[in-house]
């Protein structure tokens, strides 16, 4: 039912300068795989095969990554290196990649609105590739969210509890647990990056969303909010006021690979899982 996944990927990645001067932050590798490839794999595992990527200047490496590299493939054909391209080859064969460019950086809400041309009038998923999610045994986070969407047919945001002094790094929700669940909330308020004293809870939105297409009209009319940017959180609040947003406390781990600490933590975690330690 959810066929498309939007990846906002136009940001500068200033926290990783100078690495991100000429390399998109979405292409930074955790072990041998770029962040955005983890995101695309998660979308595929949720049954999605159309990737809608909102890029910007200096992001061409993303397009090249999800394309065939004839010269390279010719060079390593028949050698022991050939299987190293199996995973990315499988993604290229399975998925359609579509792109549009965000020419001005006016916030996450603006990036999503820029992607409208790739999505159209259907509900869609959003992955922020620098939130890297990992599951040991459970279904991938986006797959869990698709099941929630299929039950409630409204927008869904993934949440996790954060320490009270970290609320100013996230969109924070308030809501009530839906009867009979211990992980699914009907949202009635949300605030972008509130100071701890103004935060309605410690339930933070992480970079996984399912959005209904009316979000585009709302975003068109959303004024700049926190930091002078058009905030997705503000647009979602309009849906929440009508009872049309669910927050889901996902099962699994999430690494904030948009910051050096989280990136190193993810690298260590994946390395030890990979080595079986
Ligand atoms: C964005 C959203 C924020 C959300 C976060 C998750 O912020 O605006 O609501 O909690 O992603 O990673 P950013 O991290 O892009 O500043």
Automatic annotation (TrEMBL):
Gene3D superfamilies: Spore Coat Polysaccharide Biosynthesis Protein SpsA, Chain A (3.90.550.10)
Domain of life assignment: Bacteria
InterPro entries: GalU_uridylyltTrfase_bac/arc, NTP_transferase_dom, Nucleotide-diphossugar_trans
Single GO molecular function: UTP:glucose-1-phosphate uridylyltransferase activity
Catalytic activity field: alpha-D-glucose 1-phosphate + UTP + H(+) = UDP-alpha-D-glucose + diphosphate
GO biological process: UDP-alpha-D-glucose metabolic process
Domain Nucleotidyl transferase: 9-268
Keyword entries, A-Z: Nucleotidyltransferase, Transferase
Enzyme Commission no: 2.7.7.9
Role summary: May play a role in stationary phase survival.
Family: Belongs to the UDPGP type 2 family.
UniProt name for this protein: UTP--glucose-1-phosphate uridylyltransferase
Organism phylogeny: Bacteria, Pseudomonadati, Campylobacterota, Epsilonproteobacteria, Campylobacterales
């Amino acid at each position: 039912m959810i066929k498309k996944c939007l990846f906002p990927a136009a940001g500068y990645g200033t926290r990783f300068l100078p690495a991100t001067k000429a390399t998109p932050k979405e292409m930074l590798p955790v072990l041998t795989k770029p962040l955005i490839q983890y995101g695309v794999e998660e979308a595929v595992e949720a049954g999605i095969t159309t990737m809608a990527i909102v890029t910007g200047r200096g992001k061409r490496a993303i397009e090249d990554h999800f394309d065939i590299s004839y010269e390279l493939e010719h060079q390593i054909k028949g050698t022991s290196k050939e299987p190293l391209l199996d995973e990315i080859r499988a993604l290229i064969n399975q998925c359609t990649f579509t792109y549009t460019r965000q020419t001005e950086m006016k916030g996450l809400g603006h990036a999503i609105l820029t992607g409208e041309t790739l999505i159209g009038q259907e509900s869609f998923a959003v992955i922020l590739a620098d939130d890297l999610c990992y599951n040991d045994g459970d279904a991938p986070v986006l797959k869990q969210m698709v099941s929630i969407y299929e039950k409630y047919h409204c927008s869904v945001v993934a949440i996790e509890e954060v320490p009270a002094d970290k609320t100013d790094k996230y969109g924070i929700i308030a809501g009530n647990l839906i009867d009979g669940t211990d992980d699914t909330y009907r949202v009635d308020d949300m605030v972008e990056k509130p100071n701890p004293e103004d935060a309605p809870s410690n339930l933070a939105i992480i970079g996984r969303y399912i959005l209904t297409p009316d979000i585009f009209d709302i975003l068109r009319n959303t004024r700049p909010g926190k930091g002078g940017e058009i905030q997705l959180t503000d647009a979602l609040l309009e849906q929440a006021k009508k009872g049309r947003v669910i927050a889901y406390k996902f099962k699994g781990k999430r690494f904030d690979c948009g910051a050096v600490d989280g990136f190193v933590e993810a690298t260590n975690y994946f390395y030890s899982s990979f080595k079986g330690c």
